[in-house]
Design brief:
The protein is an alpha/beta fold. The protein is built from twelve helices and nine strands. Helices cover 45% and strands 17% of the residues. A hairpin with a 2-residue loop joins β8 and β9. α9 runs parallel beside α10.
Length: 322
């Protein structure tokens, strides 16, 4: 049996973790971002149609993941959900561009924080809190709303992009209202260094742990799935209360973000307990509104070793043709 070719890792640029936001966004980009949202939503309609039917951007992947996560649904449901997904994906993409110029007042009007009282009370009492959210609806606007609406510093985990220009642009958007972006490897260190200063530690935690050795396996949509252990470690070491931010689309361009408690401050937690509770909330929210999750993201790229070993054994046992 032929050995699979070795995958060569791309060398990361030397300045990857030391880049800064743009001091001034290019004029042409500011001019585009200045378009009102109703105009952007017309562009979004065209973008969604092109992405689904012409470019077919990750369309096979979207169908495959929907079928695996909702095996009881028929093809008509898969098709309708896929169409809604591309429409919502188009809206979020345009809203992210609009985030370059959107005002604080407009974010407050369009993103409403719900049940934030306990988290705000803990912060006012000098206790930091850990916020975990997911790729449901517009996660970029969630960060902007947190930065504006809670009255305390935000330390957000941020996976740098390889492309320098795009990386600096997203740093600019995400830090517009004061959030400080931290590469994941440095976030825990920063939390421990400033543990006496009340702050929000924020993470989008439903990504694939491709480059992380610390993984937690749990059942997610009926499949054994790997999650980062980072939020779990930060919650236990920092003795923080943990909240899941569940974002729901109320209408086009308007959202609510509900604070759902996952753990109390200082709670004795078994390893992986926070991730287990988080995975259950993400799945429940996605089942509630399937088209709002990021189905173009290859979520099951990292496969459990057991599944990989079983697949290799199956290949080895298969009859060979000469």
């Amino acid at each position: 049996m032929q050995r699979p070719p070795k995958i060569r890792k791309r060398r990361k640029p030397d300045d990857l973790e030391h880049r800064q936001p743009f001091k001034r966004v290019p004029l042409w980009l500011r001019a585009i971002a200045a378009l009102p949202l109703p105009a952007w939503y017309r562009i979004s309609d065209l973008f969604a149609w092109l992405a689904e039917h012409v470019v077919r951007h990750e369309r096979a992947l979207v169908d495959t993941q929907l079928q695996r996560c909702f095996p009881d649904k028929d093809q008509a449901w898969i098709k309708a959900t896929r169409r809604s997904f591309y429409r919502n994906f188009g809206d979020v993409s345009c809203e992210i561009v609009k985030a370059i110029s959107i005002s604080e007042d407009e974010i407050r009007r369009r993103v409403r924080l719900v049940d934030a009282g306990p988290a705000r009370a803990a912060l006012n009492a000098g206790q930091s809190v850990l916020i975990v959210t997911s790729h449901n609806c517009n996660w970029e606007w969630t960060l902007l709303a947190l930065s504006i609406g809670m009255g305390h510093p935000v330390e957000a985990a941020y996976k740098p992009l390889v492309g320098r220009w795009g990386d600096r642009l997203f740093l600019t958007i995400r830090s517009r209202f004061g959030a400080r972006m931290n590469p994941p490897k440095r976030l825990l260190m920063r939390v421990l260094r400033h543990r006496r200063q009340a702050r929000i530690v924020a993470m989008v935690a439903d990504q694939n742990p491709v480059s992380s050795a610390g993984r937690y396996l749990t059942n997610f949509f009926g499949q054994e799935t790997a999650f980062y252990l980072g939020p779990d470690a930060i919650a236990r070491v920092g003795e923080m209360a943990v909240y899941y931010l569940a974002m729901r689309r109320e209408s086009r361009g308007y959202y609510t973000v509900a604070f759902e408690p996952l753990a109390t401050a200082g709670e004795e937690l078994a390893e992986g307990a926070v991730i287990e509770r988080y995975a259950r909330r993400v799945e429940a929210l996605t089942r509630e509104h399937p088209a709002d999750w990021l189905w173009t993201y290859r979520r099951w790229k990292v496969r459990p070793r057991r599944a990989a070993s079983e697949e290799a054994a199956t290949v080895e046992a298969a009859p060979r043709s000469d």
